[in-house]
Design brief:
Elements: H1 3-10, E1 27-31, E2 34-37, E3 42-45, H2 48-51, H3 60-70, H4 84-96, E4 103-107, H5 110-126, E5 134-138, H6 147-151, E6 170-172, H7 180-188, E7 194-199, E8 203-204, E9 210-211, H8 214-226, E10 230-234, E11 258-261, E12 273-277, H9 279-283, H10 304-317, H11 320-339, E13 346-352, E14 355-360, H12 371-382, E15 385-386, E16 393-396, H13 404-420
Parallel strand pairs: 3-15, 5-6, 5-7, 7-10, 10-11
Antiparallel strand pairs: 1-2, 2-3, 4-12, 8-9, 11-12, 13-14, 14-16
Helix pairs in contact: 3-10, 4-10, 7-8
């Protein structure tokens, strides 16, 4: 049997209707922005394989550091023990985050980083004998697929089978000049019950790369702080340069109380999640009463190999060359967006930093299940480009090592699609 036959015999793929989906493509090698299949075909990975490979595939520096760590210490229980790589990573990350972030809690992916943040906020209040049971989140949000993360995400086809089991959340619109005051009133009516406000800063990724202005989010965060509501910035997707700055929160004057990271954290090498928080939150769990402990953990918490990958990725991220590449991609995306801004086949072009989204005009409106999605996906795949449209919306989240020639290839394919569809 070949790789496809062997796969289909034993594997259930994510977000895939296995009865109707095309057979998966076996990828056997990666290098930079490219992936290679078992037939020798080359693909340009324009979505960084679900937004994770910020430095490209099989980065030699990360591989070297992972190899060194594997030969030194592969894992150790993180309750009652620690290890140098976890300490160095926490120190390095806190050094470049907003200065109110003082403590690092390790988990293993984006959903669990969000779960940890939610549990920290809810127990923060209950530890003080002031339980607050409501959470505020944004309409169209996506924060992950575990139950807490689903609860603070938009109700949709993704959650429909589980809706009866999700806890109640107060959803608000993306803040703008027209609705900001009414949003404040909505929050004000329940403020004594609200433990936290969770948000994807500036860009709602899975919703279709929906973008909103920093100044209105900043004002809403300031209002939450005034009312004693904790704020959680879910930077699982936006972190590590995606918005043109190191973190999306660098576009804000207000600082969140908690932040969540994964995806680009390890440069896509392996799973790792991090939740950071202020000392104020951390200190609410310090007590002679063991019942006030944060009872959360994972077998692979702070896995040394994953931490080594993240530390190497962080070192690469902080290099001058990486920020130059981020600026180059931002500028080239802007030029391409300007060139196509009046195309009647596009409802809208949106850009924040290295994230560029193009929404096709379709009679049925925006939908994850738009029939155009599969046609666009296959169109680009035939051109050996990996794009994963969100319904009728195509977007780019490329590795930062993508070359100008590869960007030209991507732009040319999109213009061809605009002529074709």
């Amino acid at each position: 049997m070949n790789w496809v036959e062997r796969d289909l015999k034993v594997i259930w793929h994510p977000y895939t209707q296995m009865q109707t989906a095309a057979p998966p493509i076996p990828i056997v090698q990666g290098e930079g922005a490219l992936l290679f299949d078992d037939q020798g075909n080359t693909y340009l990975d324009a979505v960084s394989s679900w937004w994770v490979n910020i430095h490209g595939h099989a980065n030699p520096y990360i591989a070297e550091k992972v190899s060194e760590q594997l030969k030194t210490l592969e894992h150790v229980i993180f309750a009652g023990f620690t290890h140098p790589t976890a300490i160095k990573l926490a120190e390095g990350l806190l050094e470049i985050l907003p200065n109110n972030q003082q403590k690092v809690f390790y988990s293993d992916n984006g959903s669990t980083a969000v779960e940890v943040a939610l549990k920290m906020c809810m127990q923060f209040w209950s530890n003080q004998g002031k339980p607050r049971t409501k959470i505020v989140a944004l309409h169209n949000a996506y924060h992950g697929d575990t139950f807490g993360a689903m609860s603070v995400s938009a109700r949709s086809a993704f959650t429909a089978s589980f809706d009866p089991y999700l806890f109640e959340v107060e959803f608000i619109d993306l803040p703008n000049e027209e609705n900001l005051e009414s949003i404040k009133q909505q929050v004000s009516s329940i403020k004594t019950e609200v433990s936290c406000f969770i948000f994807e800063p500036l860009v709602q990724g899975s919703a279709g790369m929906l973008m909103y202005e920093a100044k209105y989010l900043n004002e809403l965060m300031a209002y939450c702080r005034q009312e004693g509501i904790l704020t959680i910035a879910d930077e699982v997707m936006t972190g590590f340069g995606r918005t043109g700055k190191r973190f999306a929160c660098n576009h804000l004057q207000e600082k969140p109380d908690l932040m969540c990271f994964s995806k680009g954290l390890t440069g896509g090498t392996m799973p790792l999640g991090i939740t950071t928080c202020t000392n104020k939150i951390y200190e609410a769990f310090l007590s002679d009463d063991k019942h006030k402990t944060l009872f959360h953990g994972h077998s692979f918490t702070a896995n040394p190999v994953a931490c080594a990958a993240a530390l190497a990725s962080l070192e690469l991220f902080l290099q001058t060359k990486t920020m130059e590449n981020i600026d180059r991609i931002c500028n080239r995306h802007q030029l391409f967006a300007d060139k196509n801004s009046m195309n009647p086949k596009l409802k809208e072009i949106r850009q924040t930093g290295t994230i560029l989204a193009m929404e096709f005009n379709v009679a049925t409106g925006t939908s994850y299940f738009s029939n155009l999605r599969d046609r666009l996906y296959q169109f680009f795949l035939n051109k050996q480009i990996i794009l994963r449209p969100l319904g009728n919306i195509i977007y780019f989240l490329t590795p930062y090592c993508i070359t100008d020639l590869q960007l030209d290839q991507l732009y040319a394919a999109v213009e061809n699609a605009l002529e074709t569809f």
